Amino acid sequence: MSQSLPYPGAPAPSESRSVLAIPAFRKLWNSMAFSSFGDWLGLLATTALAQELSGGNYTKANFAIAGVFIVRLLPAVLLGPLAGVIADRFDRRRLMIVCDILRFGLYLSIPLVGNYFWLYTATVLVESVTLFWSPAKEASVPNLVPKNKLESANQVTLLASYGTAPLAALVFSMLALFARGVTDLFSTRYASSADMALYIDALSFLYTAWIVFQLHEIPKGPATKGTANENIGKALIEGFKFVNDSKVIRGLIFGMLGAFFAAGAVIGLARTFVGDLKAGDAAYGILFGSIFTGLALGISVGPKIFNQFSRRRLFGAALTISSFFLVLLALVSNLVLAIGITVFLGAFAGVSWVTGFTMLGLEVEDEVRGRTFAFVQSLIRISLVLVLAIAPLVAAGIGRHSFKFRDTVFSYNGAAFTMFFAGLIGISVGVISYRQMRDRPTVSLWSDVLSAFRGELGAITGAHRAELFISFEGGEGSGKSTQTELLKTYLESIGETVLLTREPGGTVLGEKLREILLAHETGSISPRAEALLYAADRAHHVYSLIKPALEGGSAVITDRYLDSSIAYQGAGRVLQPAEVARISRWATETLTPTLTVILDLPAEIGLARLDSQDRLEAEPLAFHERVRQEFLNLANVDPERYLVVNALQTREQIHAQIVDRVSKLAALKINRKQKRSR
Q1: How far apart are CA 288 and CA 282, in angstroms?
Q2: Does the N terminus or the C terminus of the chain have fewer Cβ atoms within 10 A?
Q3: Which of 390, 406, 438 is the last residue of a domain?
Q4: CA separation (Å) from 266 to 75, 273, 379, 387?
Q5: Which domain holds residue 188?
Q6: To the nearest whole percent, how much of the chain has pLDDT over 70?
Q7: Using an 8 Å Cβ cutoff, are 490 and 659 in contact?
Q8: Distance (Å, rounded) from C-alpha 627 to C-alpha 348?
Q9: Residues 252 and 356 sit within 8 Å (Cβ to Cβ)
C-alpha cells in the first residue's frame, strides 16, 4: 500500500524495451519489482495473519484487519513529507540497502513473534522504512535514463509497482494450497500460509538489497524536491484553491474519491467476505488478485475499447458501473461468481481511474498541475485510510445475520452489508460526477452508446483543449473572413500572438489543392475523392502550421476546419457525415478546436452576396441548405464547443457576441501570462 499512485496509460512495447535495455535502470527496475511483490505479499499475509489470530471471532477479526490497514497507511499520511526530507540527507544507494535489510528483518520477525502487538508494531516500522526507500528510488531514476526516456521509465516503474499485485495474490493462493502438506513437517505455529508468505516476503527484500548493492551507478546527490517533500496540509490548502474554481475538476476529484471508495471497500473487506463464503486463504488471494487484474485490464484495455466516448462522460459512467458491480458482489453468495464480478468491478474502476488521471493532465493548467496532483494524492491517501479502517469496523458492528424466505435461508454478514451500502454511495457519487462534468447536455448517454456501436460517435466527440484554437464555419457569404480578421485584431489587442489561416489554402500545398478543389476547370470530382483531398490538405495544415503554432503558445484562428468537410462533403454530397468526420479526425490526430463559431445564414441570402462563384459555391440551392442544416445539427450535439451566431446581424453585433464568448477562453491564457511574468 506504500506505492505511489499510478500514472495512467502504459508505454508502447518498443519504448518499454528501450528503457529496460539500459543496464543500470534495468537493475533498479528489478529491485523495484521484487520490492513491490514483497509489499503486496506482505499485505496479504498480514491481513490473513490478523484474521488467524482472532480465533474465529467475527468482530475481533474485522477489528484486527482494520488495524492492519490503518497502521500501513498512517505512516504515509503522517511521516511522508518528513521522510522525504530526511532521505535527501543520505547516500541513496546505501539508504536503499539499509532499508531493504531492515524490511527483511521486520517481516521475518512477524511470524516468529506471532501476536497482535508485534504484528502492528512491525507493520508500522516496515511502512516507515519504506517511506525512506521510495524517495531515494524515485530520485535515482532520472539519473539513470536519458531525459527523453524519463516518461517511459516512470511508466514501467508503475508497472513494477502495480503489476506484481496479481502475481503476489497467485503466490499467496498457492501457498495456502500447499500449507497443509508443510504443516505435516513443521509446527503449525510457524508454518501457516500467512507465515510462509511472510518468509518469502522477507527474502524478497533481502534479494532487492543484493541487487541495489551491485548498482554502483546510483549517485549520492540530493533528491529533486517535489510533491513528495511537500507538507500534506499545505498541498491540500493550495490545491483546494485551484480545484474550487473549476466545476469540471470538482466533479473529477469527487468522482475519483468515489472510485477509491469502492475499490477500498473491496480490499478492506475481502478477507472477511471470503470467510463469510466459507473459503480460506487461497480464495482470499484469488479475490484480492481479481480486483487488481480487473484494474490492470481497465487501465490498459479500457481506453482502447471506449476511445470514441467523451472522457467526461466515460469517467462518471464507468464509476457508476463499477459501483453497481460492488452492489452485485455484496448480494452473491457464490465464490466463483464473486471472483468474476470482482474482475468487472476492477475493470470499470480502472477505466474510471485512468480516465480521471488523464483528464487531470488535460484539464489542469501546467502552472498549477503539480499542486493539484499533490492535493489529489493527499486527499486519496486520507480517504483510503478512512475507508480501509472504517469498512471492517462497520462490518464488525453489523455482525452476522440470516434471513429465511420460504424454505431457503440467506446469510448476509457485515462485510456484505457494508459493501452493499458502499456500492450505493459509489453509484450516487458516479451519477453526481457524471451530471456535473458531462458535455453535450442535450444528448443522452444511451444515444452515445448506440452511436458508438454504429461507429459514429468518434465523429462528434473530441478532447477539450487548453489552447486557444478557434475555427469559423458557415455557409457561403456568411462573413467568416471579416469576422476572423476582427477577432484576430481583438486578441492581439489583449496581448495574444495570433495565427490566422484558412482551409483549403493555409499552406503552399494547400493553395495548390485549393485551386484543384475550387476551380471550375477541374470539372466533376468523385465525392469520396473530394473528401480525401480536403482531408489531405487538413492533415498537412495541422502538421506544418496549426500544431506548431499552438505548441508555441500562439492562438490560432482558422477560416474553416473539419466541420466544413462534415457539412459539405458529408451532408452536401450525401455521404455519411460520420465517415467524413472520421477521416478528418484521423488526418488531424483528433486535434479539435477549443471553440467553433458558426455564422448561420439562409443559403439563398448568402449566395446572393457573392460577386462570383467557385466550383462549390455554384452547387444547387438544395446542396447549400443541406450544408447549413448539418452545421446546426453539429452545434446542437455539442453546444459546449459551438457558438451559433445569426449572420443577418450587423458585423459589429456579430463581433460583440463572438468576443463575449472568446473572452472567457482568453482569460485563461491571460492569467497564465501574468503568472509567468511574476
Answers
A1: 10
A2: C
A3: 438
A4: 22, 9, 19, 10
A5: 1-229
A6: 69
A7: yes
A8: 40
A9: yes
